[in-house]
């Protein structure tokens, strides 16, 4: 997954976030700081969030990297006066200890780029004290013990809604179902729900919504 990129005098540098499996990705764990050749195919799909005043993002585990590339585009666009977005809210639940270490380094870069709007708010929900200690407090990064209360988070955002809003999902199935359930019952005018192309695997078997509420999709106007 592409987690970031940078243009400079030497050309384009792309940062990839890779989960070691079998084959090529497994071999990479034994070839640190060693040049290898690979073909990168894509990207596929994609969404334009630049027309929304508020962008709210939900992620679990590695799904946060999917959102960070969108945040980078929005922040760069704001600095160039090219987007309408003024508020970015990221709600993330790491899946395992260590996730927040690599993610925090990427988030710090984005916060440094967000020098004009101070538009980014990050809420990290952790399930043990060890994970909590790994994330040092920051003015725009809040660490919370426990599971996110999806209904409370969304309803609070809906009550303070100004202009149009998009809710973006890259989560396990359980959280995705909770978000879609809440949105289906409380969707205000001017709010759009999208599920990003990459969705992390679920830690648990999620309950299914009744068919008339099950709008699993890549975009709802």
Model description:
The chain is α/β, with parallel strands linked by helices and 221 residues long. The protein contains 6 helices and 8 strands; from the N terminus they run ββαβαβαβαβαβαβ. The chain has helices at residues 24-28, 63-79, 99-113, 129-133, 150-159, 173-186, and strands at 2-8, 11-16, 54-60, 87-93, 120-126, 141-145, 165-170, 191-195. β3 (54-60), α2 (63-79) and β4 (87-93) form a beta-alpha-beta unit. Mean pLDDT is 76; it is low at 202-221.
Question: Short summary of the structure?
Answer:
Helix content is 30%, strand content 23%.
Element layout with pairings:
Blueprint: E1 2-8, E2 11-16, H1 24-28, E3 54-60, H2 63-79, E4 87-93, H3 99-113, E5 120-126, H4 129-133, E6 141-145, H5 150-159, E7 165-170, H6 173-186, E8 191-195
Parallel strand pairs: 3-4, 3-7, 4-5, 5-6, 7-8
Antiparallel strand pairs: 1-2
The succession of helices and strands, N to C, reads EEHEHEHEHEHEHE
How many helices? The count is 6
Strand order of the largest sheet: 6-5-4-3-7-8
Rg: 18 Å
The total of beta strands comes to 8
- The general outline is globular
Portion of residues in helices? 25-40%
Quickly give the structural class.
alpha/beta
Largest sheet entry: 6 strands, parallel
Mean pLDDT across every amino acid position:
76
CA-CA gap between termini? 27 Å
Features:
221 residues, alpha/beta, two-stranded antiparallel sheet, 6 helices, disordered C terminus
